[in-house]
């Protein structure tokens, strides 16, 4: 399965979840429910995955945590806030660069309409 195919499933599940629950819940609630929906769709999902950072030849595993990693190919960062900033978008790109993955999503469940809360980020090119 390609990154783009996985991404379509991620977005579809996020939109359905948001339509069912609406905005306003804690990020952790959306995380557990989206992970469950993605697994139900047949995808491998890991939650709170350590994203190590290397500096001066040293590796630090406690660098960052990605909310969801889907099929070891797509990073999904979740928010449940009024609006995201460029810093949130840069966070996803940083995770992609550190892991070598190509595709990531910033999903803000705090938006009144989910399509306004979807930001797709690419590191290099995606097939």
For the report, how would you describe the main beta sheet? 5 strands, mixed
Distance between the termini: 10 Å
Task: Please bin the fraction of helical residues.
Answer: 25-40%
Low-confidence stretches: none
Strand residue percentage? 25-35%
Specify the CATH class.
Answer: Alpha Beta
Based on helices, strands and strand pairing, what is the structural class? Answer: alpha+beta
> What is the chain-wise order of helices and strands?
HHEEEHEE
What this model shows, in words?
The protein has helices spanning 3-21, 27-40, 86-99, and strands spanning 45-55, 58-70, 74-79, 103-108, 118-122. With 127 residues, the protein is of the alpha+beta class. Helix 1 crosses helix 2 (27-40). The model has no long low-confidence stretch (mean pLDDT 93). 37% of the residues lie in helices and 32% in strands. It has one domain (3-122): 3-Layer(aba) Sandwich (Trna Endonuclease, Chain: A, domain 1). Strands 1-2-3-4-5 form a 5-stranded mixed beta sheet. It contains 3 helices and 5 strands; from the N terminus they run ααβββαββ. Strand 1 and strand 2 (58-70) form a beta hairpin.
